[in-house]
Amino acid sequence: MSVIHVQAPGLLTTVQDLGREGFGPLGVSPSGAADSISLRLGNRLVANPEGAAGLEMTLLGGTFLFPEGAVLALAGADFSSTLDGATVNSWTAFEALPGQTLRVGSARSGARCYLCVQGGIAVKPLLGSASTHLLSGLGGFEGRPLRKGDVVHIGSATKSFRKRKLAPRLQTYLSARQVLRVTAGPQSDWFTESSLRSFYAGTYRVGEQSNRMGLRLESAPVTQSSGGEMITEGVSLGAVQVPHGGMPIILFVEQQTTGGYPKICNVISADLHCVGQLRPRDEIRFEQVTLETARSLLIEQEKLLASEESILE
Questions:
Q1: For the chain, which residues make up each domain, given as ranges?
Q2: 216: which of 83, 103, 135, 207 fits an S-S bond (Cβ 3.0–4.6 Å)?
Q3: How high is the pLDDT of residue 228?
């Protein structure tokens, strides 16, 4: 079995796949790639199943030695990267020869980059997933971010190298959105009309304390129409909750599965990958859409991703 030698881990590099869905009632959030579309497309570039495990790097990438070589692709945010000193581009499959070293630099746009390897990252699955859940220390590679000196195993590769790249139209489609589309939250009627107007007209800055559990937003406080308390209930991925103090939080892939704060809205599924590319000090706004529009946008997105001819060259 081929391996990857971690010479430098980067800022926060973890093993992630598409997450462990279906365990919310047991208190287990899905985890998985923060930008699942980038992981899916990166895997297709190297002829993997879309859900194969890759390495998720945040803001600063790592340095990796491939003793036996590998077929690779970098997907997601644009990180400056070289293979034995030669520049390699994102969204393009390339081959690392035995003994070559890949250096992934810092983000030039977005927050997260995915290193996809033909054969996938081979770790013992937990609840059917290879994803790392950082807060609980479970899954992935020993339940933690990678460290210098780690040796990560690669699954068996069954296909020969074929140079493939993402079509320009998909790169345009995946560009960052500064306006996140949302549907009304279950407690949206807890907020005054003037507060809702201010919320949708306002601009929010992503706070420094944001992480995979949630993105804390900074702006003028969002006020409720009353100071009532709610019974703790289940929360969904992308829910925007408003705790005491009025500063919204976008609940993300390592979210708690229940919460007692009102949810003013919920980021639509088609825009969740954009949340995964937000970094501290980015500014965003919210645009409310109907449930029907949210469903149509997701169907349109999945049709686009399902078309081999429209996404790969």
A1: 3-164, 179-309
A2: 207
A3: 65
Cα angle at 106 between 102 and 109, to 5 degrees? 120
Q: Is residue 214 predicted with pLDDT exceeding 80? A: yes
Confidence of residue 226 (pLDDT cuts 50, 70, 90): low
**Gap between the Cα atoms of 66 and 60, Å rounded:** 20
241-273, pLDDT tens digit by residue?
A: 999 889 999 999 999 888 889 999 999 999 999
| pLDDT band for position 175 (cuts 50, 70, 90) | confident
Q: Which of 126, 174, 213, 194 is nearest to 305 (CA)?
A: 174
Both tokens assigned to 5: 């030698």
Name the one residue in this structure whose structure tokens are 């686009």: 304
Distance CA 212, CA 231 (A): 25
Tens of pLDDT along 60-80?
999 999 999 999 999 999 999
How far is Cα 297 from Cα 275, in angstroms, rounded to an integer?
A: 16
Which candidate, 182, 243, 191, places its Cα nearest to that of 217? 243
Specify the CATH number for 179-309; select among 2.40.100.10, 3.30.980.10, 2.40.340.10, 2.40.30.20: 2.40.100.10
Q: Write the CA distances from 29 to 124, 188, 311, integer angstroms.
A: 18, 24, 30
Query: Token digits for 206?
Result: 């992503």
**pLDDT for the residue 127:** 93
Q: Which CATH number fits domain 3-164: 3.40.50, 2.60.120, 1.10.10, 1.20.5?
A: 2.60.120
Band of pLDDT at residue 308, cut at 50, 70 and 90:
confident
What tokens does 64 get?
């990796």
Alpha helix locations (H) across 141-261?
168-173, 193-201
